[in-house]
TrEMBL record:
Protein name: ISNCY family transposase
Domain Integrase catalytic: 124-307
SUPFAM superfamilies xref list: Homeodomain-like, Ribonuclease H-like
Bias kind Polar residues: ranges: 409-424
Source organism of this protein record: Noviherbaspirillum album
Length: 453
């Protein structure tokens, strides 16, 4: 007998003893007067046992036939033993025509031991990885896109370099977004300050790793990976965010402390923030850095033949056409017509793009003089942009759109009421050409931002 039936028994017994009228009992229990009389007769004939439901211990009238459940379970054991209940239910319905609910399939699989509920599964154990022994043995790097200046300036990205052995901040660099040239600039500054570490530990972002299964063209290495290879620095990509937990936890600390410090210092620009960063790093390391197991510093000095300005460049090979031209970044480069340059027709030469935007054409280590011809002055509407760099590209696009709207409003004739056109002043000679050139330069900046990976 359930607790609900025991509560009803007290009220019905009061009716049987004559201490309560059936109408008032019906109001208390939310039943009809006829039901109350039926329960009273059962209690008088059978005693308290008459209050128990007659459906107790009897199978439900809506139960699934035993033959159907046995047939479904046999199919699951034979073909879908490693399936989840939802997918197994879909396959039984689509392939075998067995229309059973997902919860029924779940119950059958649990009883048969084919499915373990998530709450009963043993939790996965992630054992911590020991720190490295020496400073510079492994440097974790990551970019954190955040509103570092709060509402005083647009959001930007902070590139964080942290030592795995000591949790010491090695370098911080504010930039617009995580791009190849941003990491070129920050890593060059890191090497100039500390030297060459043994390895950089990063995520699987496209700056560090070619994410295609079969890269088309090139050597299968990214530009950043090629630069580290020339410097004899190992590049390691983490399998998950938890694997590089030191830099991830440092990002959370920086998003709290550094934001407040920039507010107290009244800093609202990336240039001023990069100038303040060394003071913050010294204070941070004094508070949170750990002593290394070994005092040996594994950073290595640069060799005499290692030129950082040349190494940290975007390099691609281009074929010289029969008219001594090549195309790079939607721009045609015209090589000077000389006897030696004519020998390069049909051969591949190197195109070097520096961090500051300079372009060099090199053949066998010799720089070639050239002139440019911009064939496509318009922005590509289908340009591919990395997700981490979308915010910066949209900011530049907003500036270009504002410039275009300004040109349209200046070129459109002013209108008065009733459709009459007011007299307009003709633009001075050369003004229209000057505005077009300004827009072209801004659109070229967008292309370089989109394609600089």
């Amino acid at each position: 007998m359930t607790m609900r039936e025991l509560d009803r028994l007290k009220t019905i017994q009061a009716v049987v003893d004559g201490n309560l009228k059936s109408g008032r009992a019906a109001e208390r229990l939310g039943l009809t007067d006829r039901q109350i009389r039926r329960l009273v007769n059962r209690v008088r004939e059978q005693g308290p046992a008459g209050m128990a439901s007659r459906r107790c211990a009897r199978p439900s009238n809506n139960r699934v036939p035993a033959e159907l459940t046995k047939h479904a379970l046999d199919i699951i054991r034979e073909r879908y033993a490693d399936f989840g209940p939802t997918l197994a239910c879909e396959k039984l319905r689509e392939v075998h025509g067995l229309k059973l609910s997902k919860e029924t399939i779940r119950k059958l699989m649990m009883e048969a031991g084919l499915w373990i509920p998530r709450r009963l599964r043993s939790s996965t154990i992630y054992q911590p990885r020991n720190r490295r022994h020496c400073v510079g043995e492994l440097i974790q790097i990551d970019g954190s896109d955040h509103a570092w200046f709060e509402d005083r300036a647009p959001a930007c990205t902070l590139l964080v370099y942290i030592d795995d052995a000591t949790s010491r901040l090695m370098h911080l660099h504010f930039t617009y977004s995580e791009s190849t040239f941003s990491y070129f600039e920050a890593t060059r500054r890191y090497i100039e300050l500390h030297g060459k570490p043994q390895a950089f530990y990063s995520d699987q972002y496209s700056v560090f790793r070619v994410n295609r299964k079969q890269p088309q063209g090139g050597s299968g290495h990214t530009q950043f990976g090629r630069a580290l290879y020339e410097l004899n620095i190992e590049s390691i990509c983490a399998n998950s965010s938890q694997a590089k937990g030191r830099v991830e936890r440092a990002n959370l600390t920086l998003q709290d402390r550094l934001v407040k410090e920039l507010r107290l210092q009244g800093i609202s620009t990336m240039e001023a923030a990069n100038a303040y960063v060394p003071c913050f790093i010294a204070d941070y390391n004094r508070r949170f850095a750990k002593p290394p197991r070994n005092d040996w510093d594994t950073h290595r000095p640069l060799r005499e033949d290692e030129d950082l300005e040349s190494i940290f460049t975007h390099r691609e090979k281009r074929k010289v056409s029969h008219v001594l031209t090549l195309q790079y970044d939607k721009t045609i480069y015209l090589i000077g017509d000389t006897k030696n340059n004519r020998k390069l027709i049909g051969q591949y030469i190197d195109v070097y793009e520096y961090v500051d935007g300079r372009i060099e054409l090199q053949a066998s280590g010799t720089c070639l003089p050239y002139t440019t011809y911009d064939r496509l002055p318009e922005v590509s509407q289908g340009a591919i942009v990395e997700n981490k760099r979308l915010g910066h590209v949209l900011q530049i696009a907003q500036l270009v759109q504002a410039e275009r709207d300004s040109r349209r409003s200046q070129s459109a004739p002013a209108r008065t009421h009733r459709g009459l056109q007011s007299p307009t002043k003709k633009p001075e000679p050369g003004k229209k050409r000057q505005r077009a050139l300004g827009a072209r330069d801004m659109e070229k900046a967008i292309r370089k931002t989109v394609l600089a990976t």
